[in-house]
């Protein structure tokens, strides 16, 4: 039996600080990622946050300075 799994759609991301499940659980097809951010790939963490309007455009004004806190956490895709 061949199963085809598309990896180019329906990606989501979330900070590891907000994920209570382990990798072996979140990597299963049955995992329901509640409150995760939907993202279009390819992307980066910053672009994913921008896609979801969680940050201001880092290329505008001094907005880049406000992103310092994001480098302290791990984000899971």
Automatic annotation (TrEMBL):
InterPro entries: Beta-mannosidase-like_N2, Galactose-bd-like_sf
One MF annotation (Gene Ontology) recorded for this entry: hydrolase activity, hydrolyzing O-glycosyl compounds
Coiled coil: none
Keyword Transmembrane set for record: no
Annotated ranges, domain Beta-mannosidase-like galactose-binding: 11-69
Any matching Pfam family: Glyco_hydro_2_N2
Keywords: Hydrolase
Keyword Hydrolase: yes
UniProt-recorded name of the protein: Beta-mannosidase-like galactose-binding domain-containing protein
Organism: marine sediment metagenome
